[in-house]
Every structure is written in C-alpha cells, then in structure tokens.
Amino acid sequence: MILLAHSKISIEIDQNGKKTEREIEISENETYAGLLKKLGINEETVLVFNNKKPVPYDDVIDGGKIQILKVVFDQ
C-alpha cells in the first residue's frame, strides 16, 4: 500500500466581486481540475491563477497563491 503525501493550500475564490479564502487539503500530484472538482466548481465557469498567472486545469498544483475567479455571474 502506497500512502500519498497530503498538504494544505490556501485558495482565494472571487465570486461576483465577493472574495473568500479557504484552506483545503490536496494530495500529491493533484491537478487544478481535481481541486475544482473537490470544491464543486464547474471548470467552464472559472479561471484559475497561480501567483497571478493563468494555469491549465491539467497542470499539477505546485504551491503558490491560488486564485479562482468566477467568470459566469449568477443572475
């Protein structure tokens, strides 16, 4: 049995101009797509940034300051 290393990351979610911060545990080799899935966020409604640079959803999270910007607004 192989145990994966887990770590906690801090993320900022900007939704309709309201910013919230969360801390979430991720596993080693977690992708941004996996993070969004854990958070229950549809990939088609957000942009993800790490250190203010956009990142592809299939990239592995390697630390940094993660920001999730919701681009589809609720009515």
From TrEMBL:
Gene3D superfamilies: 3.10.20.30. Pfam families: SAMP2 (PF21965). SUPFAM superfamilies: MoaD/ThiS. InterPro entries: Beta-grasp_dom_sf (IPR012675), Mopterin_synth/thiamin_S_b (IPR016155), SAMP2 (IPR053833). This is MoaD/ThiS family protein. It comes from the Archaea. It comes from Methanolapillus ohkumae.
